[in-house]
């Protein structure tokens, strides 16, 4: 029994946490939003904007920003993937026990190689994990533009109820049950967006980018199946939907990071220049380690790691991919 599903507490006041708080408010939920900076909380509560992350987008007055995590019926985690563990550790365990906790970060944890919901199980074994992923730029969600996402949980009835509690006029969650597939898709699409950006940054052409997208989809399917998820999940919003959005949109931070790599800039230089969060940078080596441990052929993940570490230039990497032994497409 997960009811009531009235109030929402969002942990993380960046672009995505603020957008999800706005979506929950538009769904009619009273929302608290945890931010780390008192001045930011003040701005959200009094001006109803979060300019550092969402420009002049006006936020719902029913979002209350706080600098300490508030208890609620529904908890939404929206800090970067590498910060989820420490954010959970900082919360009162009683806030999490028996409550639906929605993991919305898209990334795999460095060191442990864990998915976001595995981190939750580690940190709060009594919480009920759900994962939310799909094609959804924060500004689109916050501005009330039509968005559809996947919400996956272990119990179909609970997941449908939670989806209904978060659904609004412009935010449509589809209930699903393949947590593994949804999480791996969300994490890997960022790695492939780095690759697609690099293809464009290096001016390799639209044909190359589409070929990459299709082969990325095939590689992602092998990874999902090897990890115990379903390849069918990839036909949906969290798979094909988000892969195409992130790999083809200049709005994507991962794609932008990839463009800079494709132009020959180093990872260190891009980060030093103040690049926005690009989750694929941390996830790529984790994905490579997982592929190796599962014996999955993942040449694109390997290629992205070569670009990120500067161990080969783009021309050499492309030549290597194009001269792999010919194979059947299936
Ligand atoms: N921005 C977008 O359009 C979307 C982002 N996401 C995912 O959401 C996650 C977060 O991304 P964004 O919000 O866009 O990043 P962001 O860089 O805009 O904001 C991250 C926020 O998390 C806060 N934070 C970091 N560590 C924290 C901690 N330990 N406790 C509390 N707050 C902490 C930072 O202060 C910052 O406000 C990422 O995994 C991203 O892939 C998912 C869908 C869309
Ligand atoms: O996940 C996203 C859209 O679905 C956001 O992508 P970026 O993090 O690359 O901007």
Automatic annotation (TrEMBL):
NAD(+) binds at residues 12-17, 138, 253, 276. PROSITE patterns: NAD_G3PDH (PS00957). Pathway: Membrane lipid metabolism; glycerophospholipid metabolism. This is Glycerol-3-phosphate dehydrogenase [NAD(P)+]. GO terms for cellular component: cytosol. NADPH binds at residues 16, 36, 53, 106, 138, 253, 277, 279. The gene is gpsA. Transmembrane segments: none annotated. Coiled coil: none annotated. Belongs to the NAD-dependent glycerol-3-phosphate dehydrogenase family. HAMAP family: NAD_Glyc3P_dehydrog (MF_00394).
């Amino acid at each position: 029994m997960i009811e009531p599903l009235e109030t929402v507490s969002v942990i993380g006041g960046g672009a995505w946490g603020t957008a999800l708080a706005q979506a929950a408010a538009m769904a009619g939920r009273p929302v608290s939003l945890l931010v780390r900076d008192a001045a930011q909380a003040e701005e959200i509560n009094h001006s109803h904007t979060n300019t550092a992350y969402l420009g002049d987008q006006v936020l719902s007055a029913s979002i209350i920003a706080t600098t300490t995590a508030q208890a609620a019926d529904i908890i939404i985690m929206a800090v970067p993937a590498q910060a989820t563990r420490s954010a959970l550790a900082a919360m009162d365990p009683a806030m999490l026990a028996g409550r639906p906790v929605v993991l919305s970060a898209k990334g795999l944890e460095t060191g442990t190689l864990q998915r976001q919901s595995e981190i939750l199980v580690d940190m709060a074994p009594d919480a009920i994990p759900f994962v939310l992923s799909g094609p959804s730029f924060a500004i689109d969600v916050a501005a009330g533009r039509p968005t559809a996402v996947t919400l996956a949980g272990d119990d179909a009835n609970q997941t449908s109820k939670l989806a209904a509690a978060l659904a609004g006029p412009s935010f449509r969650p589809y209930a699903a049950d393949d947590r593994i597939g949804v999480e791996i898709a969300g994490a890997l699409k960022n790695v492939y967006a780095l690759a697609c950006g690099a293809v464009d940054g290096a001016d390799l052409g639209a044909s190359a980018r589409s070929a990459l997208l299709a082969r990325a989809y095939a590689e992602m399917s092998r990874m999902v199946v090897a990890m115990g998820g379903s390849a069918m999940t990839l036909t949906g919003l969290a798979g094909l939907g988000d892969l195409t959005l992130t790999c083809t949109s200049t709005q994507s931070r991962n794609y932008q990071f990839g463009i800079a790599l494709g132009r020959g800039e180093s990872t260190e230089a891009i980060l030093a220049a103040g690049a926005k969060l690009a989750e694929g940078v941390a996830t790529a080596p984790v994905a490579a380690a997982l592929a190796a441990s599962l014996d999955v052929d993942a040449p694109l993940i390997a290629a992205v790691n070569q670009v990120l570490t500067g161990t080969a230039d783009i021309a050499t990497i492309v030549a290597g991919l194009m001269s792999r032994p010919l194979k059947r497409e299936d």
